[in-house]
Design goal:
The structure holds 2 protein chains of 2 kinds. By secondary structure, chain A is an alpha+beta fold. Chain A has a 4-stranded mixed beta sheet with strand order 2-1-3-4, with helices on one face. In chain A, a hairpin with a 2-residue loop joins strand 3 and strand 4. Chain B folds into 5 domains: 105 residues, Roll (Ubiquitin-like (UB roll)); 142 residues, Alpha-Beta Plaits (2-Layer Sandwich); 170 residues, Rossmann fold; 143 residues, Dimethylsulfoxide Reductase, domain 2 (3-Layer(aba) Sandwich); 97 residues, Barwin-like endoglucanases (Beta Barrel), CATH 2.40.40. In chain B, the strands form 9 sheets. Chain B has a 7-stranded mixed beta sheet with strand order 13-12-23-22-21-14-15, sandwiched between helices. In chain B, a hairpin with a 2-residue loop joins strand 1 and strand 2. In chain B, helix 11 runs parallel beside helix 15. The termini of chain B are far apart. Classes of the chains: A alpha+beta, B alpha/beta. Chains A and B meet through helix 3 and helix 4 of A and strand 6 of B.
């Protein structure tokens, strides 16, 4: 983590020191470190001569930025109309209960983080659960629990 | 430009918004988010108007007036839209109280305190009846809520000092965020997230203290609802009077307004209308002053020390005892210590009293040491704050403007924000640091060499560091440079040497100087009274040449020195070890009127706002009470008027040779065993020699006197949390104290402000090591 943070700060200095660099730098930081940590906000604020509140205010406006550390694997449960109708909510609840994690957060062993998404664009396969880059279609609770074991 | 608003023909010369034009011509358009100091926002949608030839209902605060416009502000349709907007606002704002049938009686009798559910009730609103939303609701005569309530159930934020926040009452007008960003340029508050999840506050869920908030209270002043409220006067009720006054807590002496209720000071505000006045004050003027005068630790009655202990005595008895003491003390064997926070009238009388009644020349003030005298010598060449507008370069050295000197930091920030190069030398990350092109953070011993390099660049044009050459070059080229020096320099080793170097830099570059100090009327004191340096008087006491120690508002000793008599005249009780023979209670700022000489030389007057505590008397009354006998004739007391006495120039006491250099300890070389740099500072916030950080607990949460302040990164390395005990080691000394974790200092540096005005370690800055104290 520290290594990735160091490589990000090195890259940061190639950007001009102006407000306009904020969003590109936030994107860079998120792809390098996985999330926007308080340390990143502090570093960016210092470099761009903004306050931490300003940086956080901009970052939190956009849903693309996350502020909690991601797990090793990322579960996204679709709650779009089609998935919702065929039980996406139950899948999300199962994840919350069995993995002891809330949406937007990460399990205590850092194995999974859980997210809810509005639509993954493959409504014919509903209900859909996405783990990392794999789309799992027509998921039910039993299938869901089996899937977890493939991701350590 | 001509336009018509509500059939009134209006001519304007400058471009401005319809809302402003209407307001200037007596046409009232309701609004909750507009604010004269701030850019238009268009958030509340109450100021909608109809403009002929335009579709829809534009908000007048964001629409510029144009030639030939025909505007209507008060049609039935507009009123209907506004009522609907208010309903929308009230659907998220607990408003049951506004609709309650008993609302009128409730203000008087509090008869229905539980008339509505706690969650949606108004019990968190402050009791000052100062709510713009409430006024709007009354103006529109809204008696029913037509939309279902949407209570956000946000937790009440009570953990920061001085003000509470209940964002359930917030209507998202954005005034607090805008005043923090635009006017104060602090940007501590921001709108976080968006849509219905929006909240207001610092980054992540940091407290305001951790976010380095200045606690200037600007956000509280402009809030149109009760979402932000002052802790100290939340339940006081509606203030009766709002009177102009002057703040006595530093040399800038800002104009303030004092809120009083039942002859008590309940709060202070910056000048201007309530809710419209901006954030012109610092935390001391905005919040500390009222807490200071309402402090419960006061002497209420004269006290006399009998052989068996203290007894409360009458004023006549106490004054008689003082007279007896004065009569047995021969001339020139009394020492008079005077506080630089008194009014000019009090100071003049005190000086007269010292010369003619005590018949002594040993008049001083405990702050008036060689360091401060050297500082004031340089400060005689100070420029005024207005010069900052024209400044070409600003360089601040050892300024700690976080809880201090608001007009100064605002001037620096607004100049630097407009592109004037600003450089900062020192360790403390204050509110101006963000605007600095470069921050020079010296290691022990380096501060002096930084200044030395600037001088050598100015003289020879050579310098190794590109940043320093940039700073020196900028100061030299622009010719309109201003150097700001903070009193922290007086706590540093070789402070006087550095002051001299700063003087050289100022002369070489023809820069102006600006040097604030934390004393309310120091310039007034020095212009009225010829004083001696405190070291000389202390020497006299040590040599046993003083019989009587008379202290007026000053507390030079915590232990009773070796003198025959001690007379203590102050509003606050004496320190336990002082054991004065007579203690005379006096009034404080605000309880008597007076005048103050500011650092720019102007005289500001203020009147008394409150009744005095207990049997306290004004200083002047005490002096003339003592002087009412044969030996001490009252007739010639005082002879000259203050205005005559204020000759204009201040007279600084001369210091003897060899006393110029402050503790000139050598800084040891860095050592792996002692990796941290310790910066110490003598108490920078005083009133009547009272440490404000100790006297006002809420202010103490900000400045943390006696606590070792660490950067969160260092705290993680050492393994300490907020409030943990730590041990500080230098090769020579060990000190135990508590840790406070704040971002006001850079990693690798730790910061300690003293409780009693003495430095714990000889060298400052010095290398230390820190360990968690396992007790």
């Amino acid at each position: 983590m520290e290594k990735r943070f160091a490589s990000f700060t090195e890259e940061m200095y190639t950007y001009p020191r102006e407000e306009g660099s904020l969003i590109p730098l936030l994107q860079k930081a998120q792809s390098a470190c996985g999330y926007i940590s308080p340390a990143i906000v502090e570093t960016l604020a210092d470099y761009l001569q903004l306050t931490e509140s300003e940086v956080f205010g901009v970052a939190s406006f956009y849903s693309q930025f996350r502020f909690t550390e991601p797990g090793r694997h990322s579960i996204s449960v679709c709650l779009g109309t089609a998935c919702h109708v065929v039980g996406g909510g139950t899948l999300l609840e199962t994840c919350e209960r069995d993995l002891e994690v809330k949406p937007g957060e990460c399990t205590s062993d850092k194995r999974f983080d859980l997210n809810r998404v509005a639509c993954l664009g493959c409504c014919a396969l509903a209900p859909v659960v996405k783990i990392d880059d794999d789309i799992h279609s027509k998921v039910n609770i039993i299938k869901l629990k089996e899937m977890w074991s493939n991701y350590e | 430009m001509n336009l018509t608003i509500d059939n009134q023909k209006i001519e304007i010369s400058r471009p401005s918004t319809i809302l402003d034009v209407a307001g200037q011509h007596g046409i009232d358009i309701p609004s909750l988010c507009a604010h004269p100091e701030l850019t238009p926002y268009g958030g509340c949608r109450l100021c909608v108007v109809e403009i002929e030839g335009r579709n829809g209902y534009p908000t007048s605060c964001t629409t510029l007036a144009e030639e030939g416009m025909i505007v209507r502000t008060n049609t039935n349709v507009l009123q209907e839209i506004r009522r609907e907007v208010i309903q929308l606002i009230l659907s998220e704002h607990p408003a049951a109280c506004l609709m309650c049938e008993d609302v009128e009686g409730c203000h008087v009798f509090q008869g229905t305190i539980r008339k509505v559910g706690i969650t949606t009730g108004c019990r968190w609103c402050p009791k000052d009846q100062d709510c713009e939303l409430q006024r709007i609701v009354e103006q529109f005569g809204i008696h029913d809520l037509t939309l279902p309530g949407l209570y956000r159930d946000l937790p009440l934020e009570k953990y920061d000092p001085f003000f509470d926040r209940d964002y359930n009452l917030c209507i998202y007008c954005g005034r607090c965020v805008r005043i923090c960003t635009e006017y104060r340029k602090s940007s501590i508050l921001s709108l976080r997230q968006r849509g219905k999840l929006t909240t207001i506050g610092p980054a992540f869920d940091e407290t305001h203290v951790d976010a380095n908030c200045e606690f200037c209270g600007a956000c509280v002043s402009v809030c149109p609802t009760g979402a932000m409220s002052e802790k100290s006067r939340k339940w006081w009720g509606k203030p009766e009077r709002m009177e102009p006054s002057v703040c006595p807590l530093c040399s800038l002496n800002c104009d303030i307004q004092v809120l009083t209720l039942n002859e008590k000071i309940v709060g202070t505000l910056p000048p201007g209308k309530a809710h419209e006045s901006g954030g012109d004050l610092c935390v001391k003027g905005r919040f500390c002053l009222s807490e200071l005068v309402n402090r419960t630790e006061r002497i209420l009655e004269p006290e006399f020390r009998y052989p068996e202990g203290y007894g409360i005595v009458s004023w006549d008895f106490a004054l008689e005892k003082v007279r007896e003491i004065i009569q047995v003390v021969p001339a020139h064997r009394a020492a008079l210590f005077i506080s630089p926070d008194l009014t000019l009238e009090e100071l003049y009388t005190a000086g007269f009293f010292g010369r003619n009644v005590l018949e002594t020349d040993e008049i001083t003030s405990s702050c008036l040491d060689a360091g401060l005298i050297a500082y004031l010598k340089l400060a005689e060449e100070s420029v005024s704050l207005k010069e900052f507008e024209k400044a070409g370069t600003i360089f601040s050295a050892f300024l700690n403007g976080n809880y201090n000197y608001a007009p100064l930091t605002l001037a620096i920030k607004s100049s630097a924000g407009e592109g004037v190069p600003y450089y900062q030398l020192g360790w403390i990350a204050d509110t101006t640091s963000r605007f600095a092109r470069h921050r020079f953070i010296p290691k022990p011993g380096e501060a002096e060499s930084y200044l030395g390099e600037i001088i050598s660049f100015l003289k020879n044009g050579k310098c190794n560091s590109p940043e320093i050459s940039e700073l020196a070059g900028s100061l030299k080229k622009e010719k309109r440079g201003i150097i700001v020096v903070g009193t922290q320099i007086l706590s540093l080793s070789n402070g006087c040497v550095m002051l001299d170097k700063i003087r050289q830099i100022a002369t070489l570059t023809k820069s102006g100087l600006y040097m604030p100090n934390p004393y309310g009327n120091l310039y007034g004191m020095l212009s009225l009274i010829r004083m001696k340096p405190v070291e000389e008087v202390l020497q006299q006491i040590r040599e046993g040449r003083i019989d009587l120690l008379y202290v007026v508002g000053d507390v030079p000793f915590t232990e009773r020195p070796d003198v025959k008599y001690v007379i203590y005249q102050n509003a606050f009780p004496p320190p336990k070890g002082l054991n004065p023979d007579v203690a005379l209670p006096t009034t404080l700022w605000g309880e008597t009127g007076g005048s103050i000489r500011t650092d720019s030389g102007t005289i500001k007057r203020f009147k008394s706002h409150a009744v005095s505590h207990g049997y306290a008397r004004p200083h002047i009354e005490v002096f003339s009470g003592i002087a009412g006998t044969k030996k001490i004739p009252k007739a010639g007391f005082p002879q000259k008027t203050i205005r005559e006495a204020l000759s204009g120039a201040i007279s600084l006491p001369a210091t003897g040779p060899g006393k110029q250099a402050l503790s000139a300890g050598k800084s040891p070389a860095p050592d792996r065993k002692f990796p941290y740099v310790l910066i110490q500072e003598k108490n920078p916030h005083t009133y009547s020699n009272l440490n404000l950080g100790v006297a006002i607990s809420a202010f103490g949460e900000l400045v943390m006197p006696g606590h070792l302040i660490l950067h969160p990164m260092d705290a993680g390395k050492v393994g300490v949390k907020q409030g943990d005990p730590v041990i500080l080691h230098t090769p020579a000394k060990k000190l135990r104290c508590k840790a406070a974790i704040r971002k006001i200092i850079p990693p690798g540096t730790v910061y300690l402000t003293s409780v009693n005005g003495e430095l714990e370690f000889e060298n400052n800055p010095c290398y230390v090591t820190i360990k968690r104290d396992h007790v």
